[in-house]
Amino acid sequence: MKTTLEQWRMFRAVVEHGGYAQAADAIYKSQSTISYGVHKLQEQLGVQLLEVEGRKAFLTPEGKTLLMRAERLLDQAESIDRVAASLSGGTESLLRVARDMVYPCEQLFCALEKFSRSYPHTRIELEEFVLSGGNDLLDADKVDLLITAQVPTDRQGQHIYRCEFIPVTSVNHPLQTLNRRVSYDDLIEHRQVVLRDSGKKRNVDSGWLGANQRWTVTHVSTSVNIVKRGLAFAWLPSHWVEQDIAAGNLAVIPFEEEATRYADLYLIKAHPDSVGPAAQALYELLSSKEEFSCPNDANTAKPLVMDGSAE
């Protein structure tokens, strides 16, 4: 008798969740069904895949080898299911979009506004993250389109934006009153505010990290408010601070040398082999070099359908 994909799915669930009871809760099957399925799989293969200690199950070396091969089969089967669903279902009812916070909101919303004219009934779920947080969403299959500065090695990304980071302080910050150009050595004794990586598997803060004092936050707007109050300096996206600089609320740090930093952002399709018409349309809008603007008159713009709400 040949093994089945369902047996391999149950085996993978036991490994991923650490036991039969945990797997049963995770994939909504009875513990007896999973136990029988995995036992039958081992019997058919003539190989012991798991060793059970207490309530936890551990891979044998043979089980580890076979699971690696089974993972590829299961991924291919899931990909086929997604393609079939896309072909049979027509236009997607929901698109999950995730963006690195440094990507301009206005640029995204203009693309979504234009998208909503052609796909008014497609709902949008928008996630926002910092640094590697988007890769976690990608790994967990919680996103359809991803805007990120960190493209995984096994993915292809379309370059869509270069973000400029400007070193800024409040106008009355000590770094603005040195009566000379600022060096990096001058920064060491002043507080810096940085963004924390929102990825669960990583712990990397963004920007120059040489200051002895550092505050770490999770949102760009928090960084802006801290800097405007004179509590710290920071490298901030130019589109977040240009109005405050023009209004005299913030000032660029007068460095001895060029200190502007840049981050390139890329657009990734989570499932490039099963992209539906709505996802493809939004992908083309976001990756287009064409300049388009949002209508200023709210009465002329169709509303965006966000987070499951009805029009």
Provide the helix percentage.
Answer: 25-40%
The low-confidence runs, each spanning 5 or more residues with pLDDT under 50, are 296-311
| Rg | 25 Å
The percentage of residues in β strands lies in 15-25%
Describe it.
By secondary structure, the protein is of the alpha/beta class. The protein has ten helices and eleven strands. The protein has helices at 5-17, 20-27, 31-45, 61-89, 105-118, 133-139, 184-187, 220-228, 238-247, 277-287; strands at 50-53, 56-59, 94-100, 123-129, 145-148, 158-170, 192-195, 214-217, 234-237, 250-252, 261-269. The strands form three sheets. Strands 3, 4, 5, 6, 9, 10 and 11 form a seven-stranded mixed beta sheet that branches. The chain has a two-stranded antiparallel sheet with strand order 1-2. A two-stranded parallel sheet has the order 7-8. Helix 1 packs across helix 2 (20-27), helix 1 packs across helix 3 and helix 2 packs across helix 3 (31-45). The radius of gyration is 25 Å and the shape is elongated. The model is unreliable at 296-311 (pLDDT under 50).
Which keywords apply here?
single chain, 311 residues, alpha/beta, 7-stranded mixed β-sheet, two-stranded antiparallel sheet, 10 helices
